[in-house]
Amino acid sequence: MQRGPRLGPWGSLALAALVACARAEPTAETLTVDAPTAPPPAPAPTRSPVVPSAAPTGVLEIPALTAEQRQKGFDECNPADPLGLGPYAPFIPLLLGKLMVPQKGGHTPDFGFDVLIHFNGGDAARKLLTQVARGISLVIIDKPNGGAYEQAFGTPAAFGALRKSIERALVKHTGKPEAHIRHLGISAWSAGTMAVDKILSQQQPGIDAVVILDGLHGAWKLHAPREQKTSSLDVRFVKHEVELARRAQKGELSFFLTHSHIDPGTFPSTFATAASIVEELGLTPLKNEPRDEPHPRTSSLDVGGLHVWGHAGNDVKAHCSELALLAPIVSRYLEPAWNTPAMDREVPPTPLWGGAPKTR
């Protein structure tokens, strides 16, 4: 079933995000696999999210890019990189991807770690989270296209093997055999959504949060006009996201779904797909007052652990700016909800490519 573009890794976004939109039109009758199929609801976690209604105090913020930084080539698709790995230890290779774990701290007395597995745009995620994270550990996994993400998790055993690989790395890092994953989230931007959907379709246990950033595309109704309206979309193709959203409403887990206003033309957009889910729930998002910023929020829906946020913009930079939302989602929502133990941010920063930390 084709539901959206196959976008490559962060470095090739500028070409792939817009050119890849020229695909055959999907219908409810004849659909080819080229984007994620809708996942069934994940199993209920053991902990209910407690999501703050306002930003908690002491949360670090990423400053807006200055004119000077933009002149140097930094922008929404190339975030500034002031810290390298900062307070995190050198990358630890995993069975799939690599792990960033705090040099010091970031765990409970019994060595429980809060872990987020992120798919697609991993280097940008690193740049962002090293600046704001309280103590979360980050796994980054990048693949060349959506199909590769789907293939990587083609069997239910693949995700379990990845989780075991993470816990082995935590044991090795700490030297403590009791080191373990305490909370687990999975997140994706763009084509990485295929990995998240595949994992959720397998009803993998122990997932406390799901984050999909501008990557969920639905499918057209049979014989419906190809218009970016909920009336043209067949909600059956996102029925599992609808169920996931219902569970999030009840506080069973956290589900963040964001979208830009990019119109891909030949297949349903992320904004129309998100609107179809909200409509199916019988909810109405709030319209946000316009703000003087490149891609301001246009709508918000925050009910229990469910968050659906829309943003302005119909270009590559608008798509890239959706990934930057991972930083506030982690620092303002997930870490406070999980009460993530703080890491020591005063340690000498680790150079990007590993090795001994620099001395200050």
What would you note in describing this structure?
Helix 4 packs parallel to helix 6. This protein has ten helices and ten strands. It has a ten-stranded mixed β-sheet, sandwiched between helices. The protein has helices at 13-19, 67-71, 122-132, 146-152, 156-174, 193-201, 239-249, 270-280, 316-323, 326-338, and strands at residues 92-93, 98-100, 112-119, 137-141, 180-189, 209-213, 254-259, 286-287, 297-303, 306-311. The chain starts with 12 loop residues before the first helix and ends in a 22-residue tail after the last helix. The longest helix has 19 residues, at 156-174. It has a single domain (10-338), classed as 3-Layer(aba) Sandwich (Rossmann fold). It is α/β, with parallel strands linked by helices. Mean pLDDT is 85; it is low at 1-53 and 356-360.
Average pLDDT level: 85
| Intertermini distance | 53 Å
The CATH topology: Rossmann fold
What can be said about the biggest beta sheet? 10 strands, mixed
Q: In what order do the strands lie side by side in the largest sheet?
A: 1-2-4-3-5-6-7-10-9-8
Number of helices, counting only DSSP H or I runs of 4 residues or more: 10
Helix content: 25-40%
> What is the CATH architecture annotation?
3-Layer(aba) Sandwich
Please give the domain count: 1
CATH class wording: Alpha Beta
Oligomer: single chain
Strand content range: 15-25%
What gyration radius follows from the Cα positions, in whole Å?
19 Å
Q: Stretches where pLDDT falls below 50 for ≥5 residues?
A: 1-53, 356-360
The rough form would be described as globular
